[in-house]
Amino acid sequence: MLIDPKSAFAALPPTLAQDLLDAYTEVVTNYAEHRWEPAELNGGKLCEAVYSIVEGYLSGTYPSRASKPQNMPAACLALEKTYPKAPRSPRIQIPRMIVALYEIRNNRGVGHAGGDVNPNQMDATAVLYMSKWLMAELVRLLHGLTTDQASEVVEALVERQISLVWKWGEKRRVLRTGLTLKQQVLLLLAGVTEATEAELVAWLEHKRPNDLRKAVLRPMHKDKLVDFDETTKAIRLLPPGVHAAETLIHQLSKN
């Protein structure tokens, strides 16, 4: 990798770069957690940020924040006509991808009651990979990288857990030492849709499953951080648990 992912958008106003990164991170996070509708909805926010950046790139002046043009398809088409001598990627290819992504956000049952198509994994997958393409193309433009190099940078942007949880096949290990069992459970569950009690016991290398159940899993269930099914022994994060895990990851990533 030729550049630090943290500096991938250093050329942009900080608030504009944050708008872009926040929208992209939400797309990736919601997809990983199988929350299909939020993943698609934030694809629309990403479109607005990418459009603002591309328009600023072509005009020579970046706005401080992302904004939504009155008519996204028309605004993207206007870039082709307004900057006929500009490189093809920011003038045609990125704007056309924005229009495709925005179409899913507006007309596939996302963001509007009464849509004729329910949000689902297929649409969310399209949103995810179009979002990755847009991000990589922006990195490529801003830094003069190859497509492969830009893609590598984009993948690293959201690998927040790489230094916290090691993964190999079905095996997981929390790498950060000094954490409580509750914190370790939050980190482990943040990277999966669902786990069983037996899997957590193996990942934590805990020798007394009954103690883990009594001291950690049941209290976390009571506090609404996880849903722990005593019959099936299935465990998954509840919304307050997702927030707690994200907060913990953010705190640990800064240290």
Itemize the secondary structure elements and their pairings.
Elements: H1 14-32, H2 36-59, H3 72-82, H4 88-107, H5 121-143, H6 147-157, E1 165-168, E2 171-174, H7 181-190, E3 195-196, H8 197-204, H9 209-222, E4 226-228, E5 234-237, H10 239-253
Antiparallel strand pairs: 1-2, 3-5, 4-5
Number of domains: 2
Assign the CATH architecture of the largest domain: Up-down Bundle
The mean pLDDT is 84
Number of strand segments: 5
Count of helix runs: 10
Q: Report how far the terminal alpha carbons are from each other.
A: 22 Å
Biggest sheet: strands side by side, in what order?
3-5-4
Structural class: mainly alpha
Protein name: Abortive infection protein-like C-terminal domain-containing protein
Could you explain how this protein is built, in words?
By secondary structure, this protein is mostly helical. It has two domains: 5-157, Four Helix Bundle (Hemerythrin (Met), subunit A); 165-253, Orthogonal Bundle (Arc Repressor Mutant, subunit A), CATH 1.10.10.10. The chain contains ten helices and five strands; from the N terminus they run H-H-H-H-H-H-E-E-H-E-H-H-E-E-H. The protein has helices at residues 14-32, 36-59, 72-82, 88-107, 121-143, 147-157, 181-190, 197-204, 209-222, 239-253, and strands spanning 165-168, 171-174, 195-196, 226-228, 234-237. The strands form two sheets. Strands 3-5-4 form a three-stranded antiparallel beta sheet. It has a two-stranded antiparallel ribbon with strand order 1-2. A hairpin with a 5-residue loop joins strand 4 and strand 5. Helix 1 (14-32) packs antiparallel against helix 5. The chain is elongated and about 70 Å long. The protein starts with 13 loop residues before the first helix and ends with a helix. This is Abortive infection protein-like C-terminal domain-containing protein. It comes from Gryllotalpicola koreensis.
